[in-house]
Design brief:
Radius of gyration of chain B: 22 Å
Structural class of chain B: mainly alpha
Number of strands of chain B: 2
Shape of chain B: flat
Strand order of the largest sheet of chain B: 1-2
Strand content of chain B: under 5%
Largest sheet of chain A: 2 strands, antiparallel
Oligomer: heterodimer
Number of helices of chain A: 5
Number of helices of chain B: 4
Helix content of chain A: 40-55%
């Protein structure tokens, strides 16, 4: 398994569910539209504070947004 | 275009709260960049033009102490003030790209200057030129920024 690789995420799906544009989400998070795009396309992993912000904004645990490919807590 | 309450609204205007914030952030960013361009770019062009003309005509260039002090002060204010202002509208992705680009520019300077200096000491090349090293740094910074932005 590629430990160094970027984590996958469901950001695009969560955003689409709320009918938000990338700029709308970026504005709510305090980041640029480019940052949202880079996270969605897997080119950039957000910082822990930004990940928590996303978690609070979508009201879901971080694990439901991001997946590092290691699965459940037994593999932590 | 859509019509709402008798008013014609353009579809590209910010819709939600987030888009309004994003729009305000981008507007502020452009204002800061414009201020940096005016207060830093115009004097930089003047300095470059004066130095270039003196170099082309092989004549020494001297400035009055007042002009030199004003330009130095302006440079410090624009560089430090501009950086602080830009920091307020820069997100973590842009900041990370900036750090990477600054590292590349620093590395370019660290590689080129000592090598040039040592080769000059050995009589292989002319003496290092300070403004060329300055331009090298900013050019490396700009190219690295573009690389990390568009790759």
């Amino acid at each position: 398994m590629d430990v160094e690789g970027y984590v996958k995420n469901r950001l695009k799906v969560l955003r689409a569910e709320r009918d938000w544009s990338q700029a709308e989400l970026g504005g709510r998070l305090g980041v640029s539209r480019q940052a949202v795009n880079a996270i969605e396309t897997g080119k950039y992993d957000p910082s822990l504070p930004l990940a928590f912000k996303l978690s609070r904004l979508f009201s879901v645990p971080i694990e439901e947004i991001f997946d590092d490919g290691f699965g459940g807590p037994g593999n932590a | 275009m859509t019509v709402s309450g008798g008013r014609v609204m353009r579809d590209n205007i910010p819709r939600g709260e987030g888009e309004r914030r994003d729009s305000a952030r981008r507007r502020k960013r452009w204002l800061i960049l414009a201020a940096i361009a005016v207060f830093g770019g115009v004097p930089a062009y003047y300095v470059g033009y004066q130095d270039g003309a003196a170099l082309a005509q092989s004549r020494p260039l001297t400035w009055s102490p007042t002009l030199a002090a004003v330009l130095a002060g302006l440079y410090l204010v624009v560089t430090i003030g501009g950086s602080l202002l830009m920091h307020t509208v820069t997100d973590e992705l842009e900041r990370q790209r900036g750090y990477k680009a600054a590292s590349v520019a620093g590395l370019a300077l660290m590689l080129v200057y000592p090598t040039w200096f040592l080769l000059w000491r050995g009589g292989f090349v002319p003496e290092p030129v300070h403004w060329m090293l300055f331009v090298l740094f900013w050019l490396s910074l700009a190219l690295a920024s573009l690389w990390y932005r568009f790759r």
